[in-house]
C-alpha cells in the first residue's frame, strides 16, 4: 500500500533538497571530496526515487508523480556521470526522458526538461567515447529548445538555453565539429553576458560550471587557431566571473596565463601563472596540455582537404554544409529532407579517401557527419520509410560500412561499438526491405559488421 500523502511527500521533499545541496557542494569541491558529495547526492535522490516508485505502483499514470520521478532521475544521471557510472547514468536519463513524456507538462516547460535530459545524456555518451550517440543527443536537445521557440527567449529563460549550449559545446569539441563547438560556446557566453543583471540580482540563478564549460571550449579553439585576441577576451570574461566566485579560479588564472605566454606576453602571464600554481599545482600543467593538444579537424577543413587529395570539386558541398553557423546536425541545412544528397557525397569522399589511404581523421569526420545527416533526415521523415530507404538506403549503408572500418582503424572501440547500434537498426530495416523485394547491394556486409 502507498503511504499517507503527508508522510511520503515530506520525505521525498526532504531527500530531494538534501541531494541538491550535496550536488551543489560537489560542484565547488575537488578530488575525493567532490566524488563523496556526488555519491551522497546520488544516495539521497535514489532513496527519494524509491519512494516515488512505490507510489507509482499504485498510480502508474499520475502525471505529477512521473514528473517528480523524472526530475530525480535527471539529477541521478548527472551525479552518476560525475562519478563515472556511465551505464547507470544512461539508464537513469533514458527513464527520465520517458517519465517526462508521461508527465503531460505544457510546452515550453516540457521542451526545456527534455532538452536538458538529452543534453546530459549527450555528456554521458561523450564521457564514454560514444561519438555518434553524443552528437545525436546534442542534436535532439537543441531541437527540443528550438522547436519551442526558446532560442530567442530573453533572461531568465535564456539561461536555460545557455546551459544547454554549454553542454553542446563540450560534446562538439570532443567528438564533433570545432566550428559548431565554437558557435555553441559563443552563443552561450553571449546569453550569460546579456543576463548579467539577472545573475547579480539572483546569485542562485547563475550556473558557474556552465559558464566555465562554454568559456573553456571557446578559449581552447581560439587559442589552437592562434586567435589570441579572441581567446584572451574569453579568458578575461572567465577570470572576472571566477574572481566573483563563479567558476574555477585556478583554471581561469592558469588558462589566461598560458595563453598570454603563448601570445608572446610573458611578463603579463607570470603573476597569473604563479597565483594559479598556489591555488592548484595541477592547474597550469593541465592548461599547457590542453593548448598542446589542439582541436580536431572541422567539417569544412575535411571537405576541402579531401577534395584536394582526390582532385575533386567540393566547393558547392563546402558552401552548403560549412559556410554558415549551426549548433547541431539538423541546423546544418534549412530542411532535414535536403540532407541525403549531401550525406551521400560526404560518404563517397570518406570512402575514396580511405581507399587512397588518406588522412584517417579527415575521412572519419566526413563519414561520421554523413551518418548523422542520414540519421537526422530519417528521423524527420514524413511518409513511408520503405520508399525513403529504397532511395537512400544504399548510400547510408556505404557510409556506415566506411565509418565502422575507420572507427576500428583509429582505435576507437567505444566509438565503433556505439556506432554499431544505430547501424544494426538500419540493417534490420534493410532486411525487411529485401523481404519486400527491394534488396540493397551492401546490406549483407553491413549486417555482418553489425552482428553480435
Summarize the structure in words.
It is built from 21 helices and no strands. It is mainly α. The relative contact order is 0.06.
Mean pLDDT: 93
Low-confidence stretches: none
How many DSSP E strands? Answer: 0
Biggest β-sheet description: none
Helix and strand run: HHHHHHHHHHHHHHHHHHHHH
Query: Can you tell me the CATH architecture of the domain at 152-300?
Result: Alpha Horseshoe
Work out the helicity level: over 70%
Please tell me what the overall shape is.
globular
Task: List the total number of helices.
Answer: 21
Summary tags:
globular; mainly alpha; Serine Threonine Protein Phosphatase 5, Tetratricopeptide repeat; about 0% strand; about 450 residues
Task: Give the topology, please.
Elements (H helix, E strand, L loop, with lengths): L4 H24 L2 H28 L4 H20 L3 H17 L6 H20 L2 H17 L9 H19 L2 H17 L1 H6 L6 H17 L3 H16 L5 H14 L3 H14 L3 H11 L5 H12 L4 H8 L16 H17 L4 H20 L5 H25 L3 H23 L7 H8 L2
Please provide a brief summary of the model:
This protein has 452 residues and is an all-alpha fold. Helices cover 78% and strands 0% of the residues.
